[in-house]
């Protein structure tokens, strides 16, 4: 007898993105893999739409999460559910994507090549010939950036990376049992980086399959200063990512340089926002740094932040003396 194909759970999280999620589910309907279950988590949308999705897509397992747990919390709800029902592999997929029918088949082929975490090439939906995401390194010595893209080789070889982007990330039940679920303290941004770095520390390889299997909504003409929420979670969560990994991931002489690079990173985005008149973005950077220093993680909450005026005074003093760093 031919052994049954491994059971795969494709987890999609919806939060107030109904139109995008409809497109995503319609593309998932065309998957050529025989044992894939689609798990849709409605992550506290207002109004809640889980029941409507369950009615429209009876072949999808729909879970209504009563609160917005962020990307990390929403995916964890789907992972726990599928893991308890015997899933062997997991594909975490953004809801604002469409996929190729061979998505699961090809990603499992990547895992079978000796990897614990695999992602595909992701292209822009509006510019389908342009790569949006592939893979990257984290805090490479000598780099001015924390995330440097890795050149992806030609098919069929998988390219080893340190981080697979969470837009489409595939892993196994074995990896999750060994390292745990996504860290919900991140809520949004950098949680997949933490997951990949934890997997690598546990001895698993991360890689990018050199095949375009996912198209992601958006435009490549991204405004550099970003939205305030992006600036907040980037400043806050990069601190947490470094706190968890820099001490063990890099040798001691580079740790201080890494933290100085982090300070320059948040100062840079503060200055970019101020120079563009985006005062909300600049304040979000300071609030993210303040919450990181005070250990406040999870969803963004209104709270007193007495450090913000102090940080603003320091950053404005540097800005008057040095200007925006290059």
Automatic annotation (TrEMBL):
Residue stretches making up the Glycosyltransferase 2-like domain: 10-120
Keywords in alphabetical order: Glycosyltransferase, Transferase
InterPro entries named among the record's database cross-references: Glyco_trans_2-like, Nucleotide-diphossugar_trans
GO molecular function: glycosyltransferase activity
Stored PANTHER family: GALACTOFURANOSYLTRANSFERASE GLFT2, RHAMNOSYLTRANSFERASE WBBL
Protein name, as recorded: GT2 family glycosyltransferase
Family, as annotated: Belongs to the glycosyltransferase 2 family.
This protein's record includes keyword Repeat: no
Lineage start: Bacteria, Pseudomonadati, Planctomycetota, Planctomycetia, Gemmatales
